[in-house]
Amino acid sequence: MKRIILYLEWGSILGLLACGLWIFLKLPLETSQGFPQKIMYLHVPTFFSTYLAFFVVFTFSIAYLWKRELVFDQIAKASAEVGLVFCALLLVTGAIWGRTTWGTYWVWDARLTTTLLLFLIFLGYFLLRMSVNDRDKEARLASVLGIIGCLDIPIIHKSVQWWRTLHQPSTLFKVESGAAKPSMPPELLYPLIASVVVMLIFYLYLLLLRLQTEKRRETLNELLAEIQN
Amino acid sequence: MTVFFYTPAEVLASPDEFENKTIRIGALVQKDSVEWDAQAIELSFKITEDSKIFIPVFYAGVKPDLFREGQGVVVEGKMKGELFVAGQLLVKHSEEYTVETDNKKSKEDYYRSIQAQ
């Protein structure tokens, strides 16, 4: 696992560097927004990572409840932590972008509110974990909350279609007459796809790093308990 | 039903219900309707969805960078008779992204325009 983490680490460093240079030196300016459009290359990859992180939480929470293997809960916990950081980044980059384009950092429209809700649910998730002393009970309760919390993801994703929002509908998942048709020219689209891939690599790096720490911590706790007995 | 914003048609359909209530209306800025008084910092324009039903809007504040004719906006304020007096003007941006073909020139224009501000 050490070796994979090292590869992912260098993959993220080089990838972020390459994307940054590409975006700021090579890319044409978007017609209506100009320079501020570039924050899209941070905002959109962040939401992909947030979605993936909480999808992993969802999957491994179910896996834990089913198989009762502690490692599944460790993965869910690590992913939720990383996901929470990405979700915070998502809200912050969105607010900055919103200020320059909409003219406000924040509005209580459905997209923004449901995203904030996700952030708050998973803050509560960690409070719950901290408040339970029994490791198995903690895992059980956290799994249930993790599964329920992740149900917010499809609501976030569909919010721009279900309700009237200030946030614009999706650019990348646009479908026209049954076929996927992202509404941006290739010179803006390709670097966006590259940024998404790099951000997902960065997510995997953070996840595995966190999981490694978590496993070491549990081993340490077990050893300490043995000594005390 | 609570919605984030109403459409002009919904507001005009029941004027009594919306009179003197703080609401948001979302629509497009009608072509050739924008009057911007840079001295008084006052902006007047008409919003519409279909170029048939209009609501005139008055906004005492700075014109946002992305505000232009045909652009989607969300205004927050109150109906005063026929006129909508807005306290907040938000620009809705489209999910469509485009680049100019003559890109080098537009980049230079853009940087010149922000230096001029």
Overview of this structure, please?
- The complex is a heterodimer of chains A (about 230) and B (about 120).
- The two termini of chain A are about 30 Å apart.
- Chain A has helices spanning about 1-25, 40-65, 70-100, 110-130, 135-150, 150-160, 185-229, and strands at about 175, 180.
- Chain A is an all-alpha fold and about 230 residues long.
- In chain A, helix 4 (about 110-130) packs antiparallel against helix 5 and helix 4 (about 110-130) packs antiparallel against helix 6 (about 150-160).
- Chain A has seven helices and two strands; from the N terminus they run H-H-H-H-H-H-E-E-H.
- In chain A, strands 1-2 form a two-stranded antiparallel sheet.
- Chain A has one domain (about 1-25, about 40-229).
- The relative contact order of chain A is 0.16.
- By secondary structure, chain B is an alpha+beta fold.
- Chain B has a single domain (about 10-115), classed as OB fold (Dihydrolipoamide Acetyltransferase, E2P) (Beta Barrel), CATH 2.40.50.140.
- Chain B is about 20% helix and about 35% strand.
- Chain B is built from three helices and six strands; from the N terminus they run ααββββββα.
- Chain B has helices spanning about 10-15, 15-20, 105-115, and strands at about 25-30, 35, 40-50, 55-60, 70-80, 85-90.
- Chain B has a five-stranded mixed barrel.
- In chain B, strand 2 and strand 3 (about 40-50) form a beta hairpin.
- Chain B is elongated, with a radius of gyration of 16 Å.
- At the A-B interface, loops of A face strand 6 and helix 3 of B.
